[in-house]
Design a protein that fits this description.
- With 212 residues, this protein is α+β, with helices and mostly antiparallel strands.
- The chain has helices at residues 3-15, 84-87, 91-104, 134-148, 182-198; strands at 18-21, 26-30, 35-39, 44-50, 54-60, 65-70, 81-83, 113-118, 153-158, 164-169, 174-179, 207-209.
């Protein structure tokens, strides 16, 4: 698949999750777990909801473009080449995918402004017996990853006990974070548990070459 075909497929998928947001009076695109989306459309908002998952919102101020990812697990150790649909659940591949997508569109690595969110310890059932809760592990991972890559964090809102809704405006690099009410937590948890249970059944389709 060519890069134009990849971008076309991403655009088609985004179109199915696009709506006009009456609160912000702007077109919005939703990013789900295991996905990323780069906006070059100008007046557009990218939205996701996070429990234990983490999202990075990355902005390139010169081009006024930006993107968001959404990952559930800290990192994979499968190497530099891994199937896209198997790897985007992992933080290391999700970060590479988003950064590479921006670089392919003309962004400069040294200009990237990065803001990270999520990693909440929403409920103990997401911890799956681990000593360190998955939310904390995701938060620790993204901090370590960016440090090792020499990428500065412009802002972060990680950890805590509550889910978040993230609104990212890629034209201006602005992010609005909203904590969600208790009655929403069950829906967020249910979605993350459902996604986690499906991971092992996702078919492998194609590879992605990661930039170094």
């Amino acid at each position: 698949m060519t890069q134009d075909q990849v971008w076309g497929a991403q655009a088609d998928e985004a179109e199915r999750r696009r709506w006009f947001d009456p609160t912000f009076k702007i077109m919005a695109v939703k990013v789900l777990p295991g996905e990323h989306y780069v906006s070059t459309a100008g007046q557009e908002m990218i939205v996701t909801v996070l429990g234990s998952c983490v999202s990075a919102c990355i902005w390139e101020p010169r081009l006024k473009i930006g993107g968001m990812n959404h990952f559930m697990l800290p990192e994979s150790t499968t190497g530099d080449r891994a199937p896209v649909d198997k790897s985007m659940r992992y933080g290391n591949h999700a970060m590479e995918e988003l950064i590479n997508d921006l670089l392919r569109r003309g962004a400069r690595r040294e200009s990237l402004e990065i803001k990270v969110f999520g990693g909440g310890n929403v409920v103990s059932s997401m911890n799956t017996g681990a000593t360190i809760p998955i939310g904390d592990r995701n938060a620790e991972f993204v901090r370590r990853y960016l440090g090792e890559e020499g990428l500065a964090v412009a802002a972060e809102d990680l950890g805590g006990l509550h889910p978040r809704r993230i609104h990212f405006f890629p034209r201006i690099g602005k992010v609005i974070r909203l904590f969600l009410k208790k009655d929403v937590e069950r829906a967020v948890l249910s979605r993350e548990l459902s996604y986690r249970s499906k991971l092992k059944d996702v078919p492998v389709e194609g590879d992605v070459e990661l930039f170094t």
